[in-house]
Amino acid sequence: MQNIRRRVAGIACAAGIAIGASFAAQPPALADTGSSGSSGSMEIYLPVSTPAGMQALNAAVTQIGKPYKWGGTGPNSWDCSGLVQWAFRTAGIQLPRVSQQQARVGHAIPFGALAPGDIMIFWPDASHVGIYAGFGQVFNAYGPNGVPIGFTPLNRMPPLKTIRRLG
Length: 167
Prior knowledge:
This protein is an alpha+beta fold. It contains four helices and eight strands, in the order αββαααββββββ. It folds into two domains: 2-44, no CATH class; 51-165, endopeptidase fold (from Nostoc punctiforme) (Alpha-Beta Complex), CATH 3.90.1720. It is globular, with a radius of gyration of 19 Å. Keywords: Hydrolase, Protease, Signal, Thiol protease.
């Protein structure tokens, strides 16, 4: 039984599925002799995109080149949080309007598990948001007014506050 659990957990990890650490633990009734039957539970996130995140990213990049406008919610111009809110709405996920509120939705993801479609919140005050596009690029709307929105290398972005995974 222990070998089966290890293989299932290994297959899940190889397939890139985020699992709780307790997933591979045996229920107390099936525990091996000498086991206490209790296990801690913690979330483990892998660098795997969610379908909703990928759909949002795909929607966002259709807006490339449109101008940044503070307070812009589309369709002709965008601010950072307006773009992210709209992109995720196309994927069926309702987000709050501003980046400070978007910084509290979904699941917090460690940097090592960053995957395309995750939202990245920047600055200590959470005043900027973008969608990670992979290959060290963030798709985002940034100012001043009139600057075309598009990709920015992650190493040129402001300090990172949090990464959130939705879907």
